[in-house]
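Hi everyone,

Forwarding the result from last night's run.
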Amino acid sequence: MKSVYYGPHYGITPASGVECSAKLQAFFDTAKEDAQLILAPGEYYLEKRLVLENLKNVSVLGYGAKLIAHFDQTDPYTFQACFSVDHCENLSLEGFCLTTDNPANTAGRVLRIDREKLEMDILLDEGFVLTGKERIFSVDSFDEGAAAPNWHVFFADDGGQKGKGYRYKRIGERMIRMFCWPSTGVQILDLTPGERLCMRHSLYPTNQITFRNCSHVLLQDITVESSPGESCAIYPRCRDFTFKRFAVRLPAGSKRIYASNADGIHITGLGGKLVLEDCIFENLGDDALNVHTTGAVVTGAQDDILHCTLGDRLGKIGLPLDPDWADSGDEIAVYGGDTFVKKGSLRVVSYEVGRLRFADATCSILPGDMLANLAFCPDTVVRNCKVHGTRARGILFQTNKVLLEDCTFSDISHQAIQITSDMTRWSEMCPCEEVVIRNNVFYLCGRSCQNMRSSGIAVGIGHGGGCYDRMPANGVHGSITVTGNRFYELKDAAVFADRVRSITVTDNEFFRCCTKTDERPEDYCGTVVLFNCEQVQAEDKQHMDACKIIQR
């Protein structure tokens, strides 16, 4: 039996505009075990994050409660966010709405472009104010009425937290003049007056909800209406998470373009099982969901000792791994450095940054081989979810086992689904062994980028448009099944797969997929395109105008 603690009984009442972080923190520290903590409906203003730690069998309920975290557009990386959760077990977080007091992004319209001076004049939408002191870390361009950016302008190269942002000055009550860096100024060649712009005031500050070292967690009826970075992030060592009716979306009447400046849910340290049911992700500045572990590269091997670093992260080789990358007893999968194919596995005896002692290796391990910690590859189920209007992909799966069913994807800039293992850019692992994608709807996906291999489902290596950055040997991914889905109005292939051991594409419906253009290589033009895949079964009941099976 849980003891019930009701906020008003402890002097915790809604107080819009009045900072109440300390009072809320004291309330959440009231009970650590077998408790139900309930906030009354209303608005709660926060300048510091709420820390939930060392809770066991606790429910935190906020039905009707809105947490408003302070966001300073002039110093955005001081953002504290709403929740930081650490070392909790059997925890449920339910019913809250999370937002910010100031907009995390500003909307406007380009009125004038000077391509020689690399500058543009922007009229801000009504309700937005920029004095010249606010930071702008990214700019995305949109067609009128579009939910996803058109990628004419996609500035995001200023160095993030360490950068100064894009230079601009105020030239009128709602007018600013922005000066583009030479590295990205070339993008305005494709821009035309009248296009809409979204200016993000941050990229990756503190997440609205952050989890570490938590197990058996339920997030239910949570809505994120404004997040300056990722809405929710899960880091090592977590296990067994369920999201039910978790939503990232703009409130009714909002003039902002993005609900979240970055990902909806980003997962790097989760084991066991991940379940998403009846969730909604709308208008995000990056992916709705990315499930992966951090990949490592072996730099030296001798006897039972491996030296390893982060992978080739944005061209920087040799960055250190996190201290929590592995622990004694973890199983590590080993992949060939020039093939991405799994070679075997080993067991961790001990780990410190950059140095791993191992036992029970089932293969030889060479410098250049890649490692993935299977402790952070959850079995993943995504069911009856909606993804609409993301700047990048819909969902990235980089984990062993996946079931995706009864979901809807629309107005996605890149692919709706990407099954990959991106060690050449973001140091993300691992290849998928068993994936079933069934009874989903894909509509107007991949619409904003040129020469994508797939607008619907892309299977391969890397995060690039081709879904691979180098050509590995056969058999990178295991079994992929795509069945009973409907694909509508996709500019590129509905399904593109590279180097899969077993792939089945059956009983799907296709309508107006992969419109031929002169820029697209002939090999990539087809409703379903399969490169060097083994054990192929590809049969569909209607509208498959081309299925290409290509061996090289």
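The chain has two helices and 52 strands.

Cheers,
N.
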